Amino acid sequence: MEAFIKKEECTSKIDTEVLTSSSSAVYGFFDRTTHLSLSMTMMTPPPLDQEDDEMLVPHTDFADGPQPMEVAQAETASTVENQPVEDPPLSRFTWTIENFSRLNTKKHYSDIFYVGGYKWRVLIFPKGNNVDHLSMYLDVADSANLPYGWSRYAQFSLAVVNQIHSKYTVRKDTQHQFNARESDWGFTSFMPLSELYDPGRGYLANDTVIVEAEVAVRRVVDYWTYDSKKETGYVGLKNQGATCYMNSLLQTLYHIPYFRKAVYHMPTTENDMPSGSIPLALQSLFYKVQYSDNSVATKELTKSFGWDTYDSFMQHDVQELNRVLCEKLEDKMKGTVVEGTIQQLFEGHHMNYIECINVDYKSTRKESFYDLQLDVKGCRDVYASFDKYVEVERLEGDNKYHAEQHGLQDARKGVLFIDFPPVLQLQLKRFEYDFMRDTMVKINDRYEFPLQLDLDRENGKYLSPEADRRVRNLYTLHSVLVHSGGVHGGHYYAFIRPTLSDQWFKFDDERVTKEDIKRALEEQYGGEEELPQTNPGFNNTPFKFTKYSNAYMLVYIRESDKEKIICNVDEKDIAEHLRIRLKKEQEEKEHKKKEKAEAHLYTIIKVARNEDLIEQIGKDIYFDLVDHDKVRIFRIQKQMPFILFKEEVAKEFGIPVQYQRFWLWAKRQNHTYRPNRPLTHQEEQQSVGQLREVSNKAHNAELKLYLEVELGPDLRPISPLDKTKEDILLFFKLYDPEKEEFRYVGRIFVKGIGKPVDILTKLNEMAGFSPNEEIELYEEIKFEPTVMCEHIDKKLTFRSSQLEDGDIICFQKSHPVDSDEQYRYPDVPLFLEYVHNRQVVHFRSLEKPKEDDFCLELSKLYTYDDVVDRVARQLGLDDSTKIRLTSHNCYSQQPKPQPIKYRGVEHLSDMLVHYNQTSDILYYEVLDIPLPELQGLKTLKVAFHSAIKDEVVIHSIRLPKQSTVADVINDLKTKVELSHANAELRLLEVFYHKIYKIFPPTEKIENINDQYWTLRAEEIPEEEKNLGPQDRLIHVYHFTKDTSQNQMQVQNFGEPFFLIIHEGETLAEVKLRIQKKLQVPDEEFAKWKFAFLSLGRPEYLQDSDVVSSRFQRRDVYGAWEQYLGLEHSDSAPKRAYAANQNRHTFEKPTHERLTGVQKYKRYWKLCIEVVSAGFGPLCVRSVVFYHHFQCNLAVHKKIFALGLYTGFAIERNQNAVSEIERDD
């Protein structure tokens, strides 16, 4: 379960007391959050307010002083919470204790009573269990005699009856899973002894105390043995890490039979692979869900989405997944028998209209939808949300509508529905950005939804005039998708009634349970829940808690279409090739399952032969002798005598039993694997199982053997030669430096006292050389972590060279010193070193990062210069220093944001490593100047706003990194036309229509980031050069107000600028200068409003107000502090930000309905810009506050995953952000 603590785990105790184990102490402090501490991504609810500090503990006697404390994980509630069992009957036991004050025992037991077939009793400590309170517990009476591993779960209450006023009876409730370690559970501080023993209080009457126990025993279903198919008839989906949101959606779609049938009828072929085809993957998944007995994996489907493992551990947005999936399927259905199914099921239409009030003009636009997003905040139920959806907005005053041929007019704006789809998907807006708290929040408000939804209510108030009123828009609830948790994490599951019967089912990843309608509907409304008072009459405040589990998506099916949609789907709807494929998969799965179940009865024997060595060495492998996974494998019963196994081998290979000799393999300390010794006659008389145990200390089920077969002159098998201790079995590989080929040529038995010179003729014969060919011999010793291959002295004995059974000798022709022939790898050690380190690298142009351009075989030990030289040669480039390389991000499958610096890494292996993964991809680009020279330069893109022309021109300025802003300005002066020869320029930093900085001329350009900020250059007006002592230079920004979120939000737009205001100058005077500067027509300018804004809040000014009084400081104010705001809308068309743009053109703000993806991209881009510039999360929040972006849960998970804490290096931030940006 992702990032969520179930409600019941935090609030299952009525008095919110804390559970502890039998060794818990009541002294000292107890950390109430201990049992809630989870991993970093968990959502921890706020601690519960408690009325007292008493703890819920078992009865164990406490020693004097503090004792070690253990915390019982509050798992029971969540374990039992979902059990498909009815609430058990409640049994009450009353215990009358006479002569109570004269009890001298420390603890006192009641008589035994039976509940749920179990024996129980109540235990009290009349004088308290080392506390000044009555201590009382429920005890399993026969715990000492119960079998090992017993457990039982009970909900119970204990009470001390008030015999004067029953309403003052003290009653406390809890629940517990009893077991051998915790056979009793209850309240150490049940009630103060002073109250209990006070006759006037009514608890002790006639020296008698009456105790009541109410106990309900519930059946505990073991999660691990629970069979969803058996219990419910349905199976769940496996969670890949954070895919519960997807599982809930897939179950919902699967249980729309018409949709499932359409998916089955999509054309796929037997040659398709599920991991590369969404239709086939979905068909496969649905088939398995329909016919499997166990939960089904979704990996093939997520692979078909193009996700890797990393994506599966990131929560995505459910609505976007639903839309993307439907769009993909809709596209794949085109031209098939099921074309249009998605539209037929899910597509509805609404009409956006604007209707003038005073003239006869109406504008309408028809739009389609697959789902509807309904407001939760401020709405009590679905009907209230629909009311709000079609609410009419009046366009009047400054917000009048510009109607064609009628000019600005008062108008009404709204939405009405033309038609609703048969399957209505309602997305509830549970997540939104809270601008007051400056954070994303989840709306847990109570929000009701009906079992039947009538969208024809009140004479079709939601329908447009052209809607077909003959269609009855009465819907019945099919699915409730639930999010349980908070904004930064949670768990998703679904309540579905597949056949629209009264029986609901909860689909929670792998587990499916039966649920009642209350669980599916009422308990998913959200809001607050009030726990019942435990001590009525004492005026204690009822305890309330927020319900973090609530519905976020509803699926309704139209009553008139339900017979068509809830249709029968059987095997005849499934393509034959799919049935065959999936049945084969199922058979293979069953076969593997059977093999696994019977694995303890069998031994796997892998038999390697000379033929395998010939086949593999020099092709599949170069080191050691064989890949055991590619040899003949036998599955043999352990009881089979080995001599019978030899007969199986005889049948398989045609080698008579008497000619077979088997060798055991051994793993050496240097991690090589070689034949070690032949089996003895006594060992061959043993069973296969016994032999495996003798040969294999690792106790796995495999036995690896090498089959030695001697061949006579006629190449027929003969009896193996007798082997003595002096005989050594050696294997030989031949290397050809000219062809760079490596192959196995055979094996020879040699005598330990013999010398290599004795077998040179034989080796030449095996290699096909002339008998007198000079050859060099090398011993292949090891290859991990580095290659070790040593020359063999041919005059030393084999024993002196420390050669033994299974060793490998590599040989080649001797290479004369005076030879003209030059080879890349002239000898065996160099070739093996090359093979060990060689790497095929796929090079891609940085401009086309998805396409391989060419491949090169390189060595991991190549230096930086070696690599760029090879790339330059491949590209036909003379100067390799003009090649710049960029490494590959294995997670995002994109180039890393920062290129590799010139000689910034030592070897190719360093270029290919990304965290703990190794890639085989590099990106290249060809520069116009050498990389070392470029690295010493800084390139800035500067937007120059001309003072004499109506244009903005972007200039690229490339200067040495140590240059200053003054150098940039001087360079720019040579490229632009100035108003006069002595004009001075300044460089500004502009971000989202605000000026954040005027760069001082002495600032170094090395740290200026123009990738995310706009650098603006402009002439300094003459009036600013001669500021008077009382003059102020202020920021002036254009803005508009947006009230779409039921809150006033300021949005800036257009070009910001500076303005001088003089002491005592009124707004009327300032307005004249602004109008002249911006050249705004009188009619338009009369509509503008002027405000002083501080931290985003406007204070509107009157013409008589003295502007300078609002701006007290003389220096330039920060962009996020104070500015003079020009509020207006602009009906002029927008101009592109390029050449021919007026310096101070104000752009009309657009009011558009953004999709989730658009909101995501805008918000994400903004955060990237801020963080990548080296700012911390406070700046991110400030930008979010000012720019009012909304995003969904998935976005925030990504942002928090970045770890954007103040103090990160700028480069680190850029890397992290860019990688995730590209990943998205």
TrEMBL record:
One term of GO molecular function: cysteine-type deubiquitinase activity
Protein origin, superkingdom: Eukaryota
InterPro entries, per database record: MATH/TRAF_dom, Papain-like_cys_pep_sf, Peptidase_C19, Peptidase_C19_UCH, TRAF-like, USP, USP7_ICP0-binding_dom, USP_C
Chain ranges of the MATH domain: 90-215
EC number: 3.4.19.12
SMART domains, A to Z: MATH
GO terms under cellular component: cytosol; nucleus
Keyword Hydrolase assigned: yes
UniProt keyword Protease present: yes
Protein name, UniProt field: ubiquitinyl hydrolase 1
Record organism: Protea cynaroides
